[in-house]
Protein backbone atom coordinates (compact mmCIF):
# COMPACT_ATOMS: atom_id res chain seq x y z
CA UNK A 1 0.00 0.00 0.00
CA UNK A 2 1.58 3.23 -1.13
CA UNK A 3 0.19 6.48 0.14
CA UNK A 4 2.22 8.36 -2.49
CA UNK A 5 -0.37 7.51 -5.11
CA UNK A 6 -2.68 9.92 -3.40
CA UNK A 7 -2.28 13.59 -3.58
CA UNK A 8 -4.85 14.29 -0.92
CA UNK A 9 -4.29 11.98 2.03
CA UNK A 10 -7.57 12.91 3.67
CA UNK A 11 -9.18 9.49 3.73
CA UNK A 12 -8.16 6.38 5.70
CA UNK A 13 -8.92 3.97 2.89
CA UNK A 14 -6.73 5.72 0.37
CA UNK A 15 -4.50 3.28 -1.45
CA UNK A 16 -4.54 2.22 -5.07
CA UNK A 17 -7.03 -0.57 -5.58
CA UNK A 18 -5.65 -3.77 -6.97
CA UNK A 19 -8.09 -6.33 -8.29
CA UNK A 20 -6.54 -9.53 -9.64
CA UNK A 21 -8.06 -11.62 -12.42
CA UNK A 22 -9.10 -14.18 -9.80
CA UNK A 23 -10.75 -11.40 -7.76
CA UNK A 24 -12.69 -10.20 -10.82
CA UNK A 25 -13.92 -13.70 -11.59
CA UNK A 26 -15.15 -14.16 -8.02
CA UNK A 27 -16.81 -10.73 -7.95
CA UNK A 28 -18.61 -11.51 -11.21
CA UNK A 29 -19.90 -14.83 -9.83
CA UNK A 30 -21.13 -13.10 -6.69
CA UNK A 31 -22.83 -10.37 -8.72
CA UNK A 32 -24.43 -13.00 -10.96
CA UNK A 33 -25.88 -14.77 -7.92
CA UNK A 34 -27.38 -11.54 -6.58
CA UNK A 35 -28.79 -10.39 -9.93
CA UNK A 36 -30.30 -13.80 -10.71
CA UNK A 37 -31.84 -14.09 -7.24
CA UNK A 38 -33.47 -10.71 -7.75
CA UNK A 39 -35.09 -11.91 -10.95
CA UNK A 40 -32.73 -11.08 -13.81
CA UNK A 41 -32.48 -13.75 -16.52
CA UNK A 42 -28.74 -13.98 -17.17
CA UNK A 43 -29.16 -16.43 -20.03
CA UNK A 44 -29.90 -13.96 -22.83
CA UNK A 45 -27.58 -12.23 -25.32
CA UNK A 46 -28.24 -8.90 -23.64
CA UNK A 47 -27.62 -10.03 -20.04
CA UNK A 48 -24.91 -12.69 -20.24
CA UNK A 49 -22.22 -10.06 -19.63
CA UNK A 50 -24.26 -8.03 -17.16
CA UNK A 51 -22.48 -9.27 -13.99
CA UNK A 52 -19.11 -8.26 -15.46
CA UNK A 53 -20.45 -4.89 -16.64
CA UNK A 54 -22.12 -4.31 -13.28
CA UNK A 55 -18.87 -4.83 -11.34
CA UNK A 56 -16.94 -2.72 -13.85
CA UNK A 57 -19.48 0.11 -13.59
CA UNK A 58 -19.28 0.06 -9.79
CA UNK A 59 -15.49 0.03 -9.97
CA UNK A 60 -15.52 3.06 -12.29
CA UNK A 61 -18.10 4.89 -10.17
CA UNK A 62 -15.81 4.53 -7.12
CA UNK A 63 -12.61 5.63 -8.87
CA UNK A 64 -12.20 8.34 -6.23
CA UNK A 65 -10.48 5.73 -4.05
CA UNK A 66 -7.65 5.73 -6.58
CA UNK A 67 -6.90 9.40 -6.02
CA UNK A 68 -6.19 12.08 -8.61
CA UNK A 69 -2.51 13.06 -8.85
CA UNK A 70 -3.39 15.68 -11.49
CA UNK A 71 -5.08 17.73 -8.82
CA UNK A 72 -1.67 18.55 -7.43
CA UNK A 73 0.54 18.36 -10.50
CA UNK A 74 -1.49 20.74 -12.67
CA UNK A 75 -1.27 23.17 -9.85
CA UNK A 76 0.43 25.45 -8.52
CA UNK A 77 0.99 28.71 -10.33
CA UNK A 78 -2.50 30.02 -10.70
CA UNK A 79 -2.35 33.34 -8.95
CA UNK A 80 -5.38 35.46 -8.29
CA UNK A 81 -5.97 38.12 -10.85
CA UNK A 82 -8.46 40.84 -10.23
CA UNK A 83 -9.22 39.41 -6.83
CA UNK A 84 -9.27 42.38 -4.54
CA UNK A 85 -10.22 43.12 -1.00
CA UNK A 86 -9.66 41.04 2.10
CA UNK A 87 -13.02 39.36 1.89
CA UNK A 88 -13.61 38.92 -1.82
CA UNK A 89 -14.96 35.44 -2.36
CA UNK A 90 -14.77 33.28 -5.44
CA UNK A 91 -17.83 31.11 -6.06
CA UNK A 92 -17.86 28.27 -8.60
CA UNK A 93 -20.67 25.99 -9.62
CA UNK A 94 -22.85 24.21 -10.22
CA UNK A 95 -20.49 21.24 -10.51
CA UNK A 96 -22.44 18.07 -11.20
CA UNK A 97 -21.55 14.96 -9.20
CA UNK A 98 -22.56 11.33 -8.71
CA UNK A 99 -21.80 9.46 -5.50
CA UNK A 100 -22.83 6.16 -3.92
CA UNK A 101 -24.55 6.27 -0.55
CA UNK A 102 -22.64 4.09 1.89
CA UNK A 103 -25.83 2.89 3.56
CA UNK A 104 -27.46 1.38 0.46
CA UNK A 105 -24.71 1.44 -2.22
CA UNK A 106 -27.13 3.32 -4.46
CA UNK A 107 -26.43 6.66 -6.14
CA UNK A 108 -27.07 10.10 -4.84
CA UNK A 109 -26.41 12.86 -7.32
CA UNK A 110 -26.72 16.57 -7.68
CA UNK A 111 -24.82 19.82 -7.82
CA UNK A 112 -21.95 21.23 -5.80
CA UNK A 113 -21.14 24.90 -5.24
CA UNK A 114 -17.74 25.82 -3.88
CA UNK A 115 -16.84 29.24 -2.52
CA UNK A 116 -13.57 30.42 -1.05
CA UNK A 117 -11.75 33.52 0.06
CA UNK A 118 -8.40 33.14 -1.66
CA UNK A 119 -5.04 33.32 0.05
CA UNK A 120 -2.18 33.42 -2.46
CA UNK A 121 -3.58 30.90 -4.94
CA UNK A 122 -6.77 30.08 -6.74
CA UNK A 123 -8.00 26.91 -8.42
CA UNK A 124 -9.59 26.82 -11.86
CA UNK A 125 -13.05 25.36 -12.29
CA UNK A 126 -11.61 22.21 -13.92
CA UNK A 127 -9.59 21.44 -10.82
CA UNK A 128 -12.53 22.19 -8.54
CA UNK A 129 -14.50 19.70 -10.62
CA UNK A 130 -11.69 17.15 -10.12
CA UNK A 131 -11.73 17.82 -6.40
CA UNK A 132 -15.49 17.26 -6.16
CA UNK A 133 -15.24 14.03 -8.19
CA UNK A 134 -12.29 12.74 -6.17
CA UNK A 135 -14.52 12.57 -3.11
CA UNK A 136 -17.87 11.93 -4.83
CA UNK A 137 -16.75 8.79 -6.64
CA UNK A 138 -16.79 6.67 -3.50
CA UNK A 139 -19.19 5.21 -1.00
CA UNK A 140 -19.98 8.19 1.18
CA UNK A 141 -22.68 10.34 2.77
CA UNK A 142 -23.60 13.84 1.72
CA UNK A 143 -22.35 15.58 4.88
CA UNK A 144 -18.93 13.94 4.78
CA UNK A 145 -18.62 14.59 1.06
CA UNK A 146 -19.11 18.32 1.68
CA UNK A 147 -16.55 18.31 4.50
CA UNK A 148 -13.96 16.42 2.47
CA UNK A 149 -14.32 18.84 -0.44
CA UNK A 150 -13.88 21.78 1.96
CA UNK A 151 -10.85 20.24 3.68
CA UNK A 152 -9.34 19.17 0.34
CA UNK A 153 -9.60 22.72 -0.99
CA UNK A 154 -7.96 24.00 2.18
CA UNK A 155 -5.07 21.60 1.67
CA UNK A 156 -4.68 22.48 -2.00
CA UNK A 157 -4.70 26.28 -1.97
CA UNK A 158 -4.60 27.41 1.65
CA UNK A 159 -7.55 29.80 1.36
CA UNK A 160 -8.75 32.01 4.20
CA UNK A 161 -12.17 30.44 4.12
CA UNK A 162 -14.17 27.76 2.30
CA UNK A 163 -17.88 27.24 1.76
CA UNK A 164 -19.37 24.12 0.18
CA UNK A 165 -23.02 23.60 -0.65
CA UNK A 166 -24.35 20.31 -2.01
CA UNK A 167 -27.85 19.75 -3.39
CA UNK A 168 -28.56 16.08 -4.02
CA UNK A 169 -31.32 13.61 -4.78
CA UNK A 170 -30.92 10.19 -3.15
CA UNK A 171 -31.97 7.21 -5.23
CA UNK A 172 -32.01 4.90 -2.20
CA UNK A 173 -35.12 6.73 -1.01
CA UNK A 174 -36.53 7.96 -4.34
CA UNK A 175 -36.45 4.53 -6.06
CA UNK A 176 -38.31 2.86 -3.22
CA UNK A 177 -40.99 5.51 -2.76
CA UNK A 178 -39.76 6.46 0.71
CA UNK A 179 -39.39 10.04 -0.36
CA UNK A 180 -41.29 12.22 -2.78
CA UNK A 181 -40.13 12.39 -6.35
CA UNK A 182 -37.84 15.36 -6.87
CA UNK A 183 -36.90 15.73 -3.21
CA UNK A 184 -33.51 17.39 -2.77
CA UNK A 185 -31.27 17.40 0.31
CA UNK A 186 -29.12 20.50 0.88
CA UNK A 187 -25.89 20.44 2.91
CA UNK A 188 -23.64 23.41 3.67
CA UNK A 189 -20.19 23.39 5.28
CA UNK A 190 -18.23 26.47 6.42
CA UNK A 191 -14.54 26.81 7.18
CA UNK A 192 -12.35 29.71 8.28
CA UNK A 193 -13.57 33.17 7.29
CA UNK A 194 -17.07 31.83 6.54
CA UNK A 195 -17.35 30.60 10.11
CA UNK A 196 -16.58 34.05 11.45
CA UNK A 197 -18.37 36.31 8.98
CA UNK A 198 -22.08 35.81 8.41
CA UNK A 199 -22.15 38.37 5.58
CA UNK A 200 -19.87 36.01 3.62
CA UNK A 201 -22.27 33.14 4.25
CA UNK A 202 -25.24 35.24 3.19
CA UNK A 203 -23.50 36.36 0.02
CA UNK A 204 -22.51 32.77 -0.82
CA UNK A 205 -26.05 31.50 -0.29
CA UNK A 206 -27.46 34.33 -2.43
CA UNK A 207 -24.99 33.63 -5.24
CA UNK A 208 -25.78 29.91 -5.23
CA UNK A 209 -29.56 30.15 -4.89
ZN1 LIG B 1 -28.91 5.49 1.18
Descriptive overview:
The termini are far apart. The chain has 8 helices and 5 strands; from the N terminus they run H-H-H-E-E-H-E-H-E-H-E-H-H. It is elongated. The chain folds into 2 domains: 3-66, GTP Cyclohydrolase I, Chain A, domain 1 (Orthogonal Bundle); 77-207, 2-Layer Sandwich (GTP Cyclohydrolase I, domain 2). It has helices at residues 21-38, 50-61, 70-73, 125-136, 142-157, 171-174, 193-196, 198-207; strands at residues 89-101, 107-117, 139-140, 161-170, 185-192. Strands 3-1-2-4-5 form a 5-stranded mixed β-sheet, sandwiched between helices. With 209 residues, the chain is of the alpha+beta class. The structure holds zinc ion. Zinc ion binds next to loops.
- Tell me which ligands are bound: zinc ion
Sheet-strand content, in percent, reads: 15-25%
Shape: elongated
Let me know the average pLDDT.
Answer: 87
CATH class of the largest domain: Alpha Beta
- Poorly predicted tracts of residues: 1-12
Number of helices: 8
Give me the side-by-side strand order of the main sheet. 3-1-2-4-5
- By helix and strand content, what is the structural category? alpha+beta
Chain oligomer state? single chain
Work out the radius of gyration.
20 Å
**Largest beta sheet, briefly?**
5 strands, mixed
CATH architecture of the largest domain: 2-Layer Sandwich
Q: Remind me, CATH topology of the largest domain?
A: GTP Cyclohydrolase I, domain 2
